[in-house]
Design goal:
Helix content: over 70%
Number of domains: 2
Number of strands: 0
Structural class: mainly alpha
Shape: elongated
Largest sheet: none
Number of helices: 9
Order of helices and strands: HHHHHHHHH
Length: about 200
């Protein structure tokens, strides 16, 4: 058996989670609280996910204590299952790889969108679509690295990552698409009337 000082960070977090009263008395398992109901399946080196579960356990402990303060019997299976649904509604914890992959996908979307839009405006000004498209892709990459990727990669629940991706798309992709449509219209008008 390892001593406390010999444990790595992941093992320490798991030890903390296992030692909580609501884990020991089975309330996490009874409430089917995602991630906390079966800690044995989680790898010790998945620090990001374990840290997310620690935050989830803090919320669960607080909500269980509030329910008990209101006179609810948290040893009752139905009461604990209802509480588990409320706790799970806070968001499904995700692994670091999922948040990083979403950040990469958002970056690629931004690069492609900006590349196409700037490329279209290159055609409007009778320049190379490819060169302008490359500048646009680099602008999309820079914007993503500064504003989107770090925020997306740090999200810990599916719901938060969806909200972040939606907000980024709404603010940084949708307006650029309209600019691209305007450029396409100008380019077509130039082709028809001024060639």
């Amino acid at each position: 058996m390892k001593k406390l000082e010999d444990l790595n960070k992941g093992e320490l977090i798991k030890a903390d989670l296992y030692s909580r009263p609501n884990a020991m008395n089975g309330k996490y398992r009874t409430g089917q609280i995602f991630g906390l109901d079966n800690l044995a399946e989680i790898k010790d080196n998945d620090i990001f996910f374990l840290e997310t579960l620690k935050v989830r356990a803090d919320s669960a402990d607080k909500m269980i204590a509030e329910a008990e303060a209101q006179g609810k019997d948290t040893t009752d299976l139905n009461v604990m299952r209802d509480l588990g649904k409320e706790i799970n509604a806070l968001g499904k914890p995700i692994h670091r790889s999922e948040s990083i992959m979403t950040a990469i996908m958002n970056t690629l979307q931004l690069m492609i969108t900006y590349g196409i839009v700037i490329g279209i405006w290159g055609l409007v000004f009778k320049k190379s679509f490819l060169i302008f498209g490359l500048y646009g892709a680099m602008a999309g990459l820079l914007i993503s690295l500064l504003f989107i990727a770090p925020v997306t990669a740090s999200q810990r629940t599916k719901e938060r990552i969806k909200d972040t991706s939606f907000g980024a798309s709404l603010m940084l992709v949708t307006p650029v698409i309209y600019i691209g449509i305007a450029g396409l219209v100008v380019w077509v008008i130039r082709l028809i009337f001024f060639n």
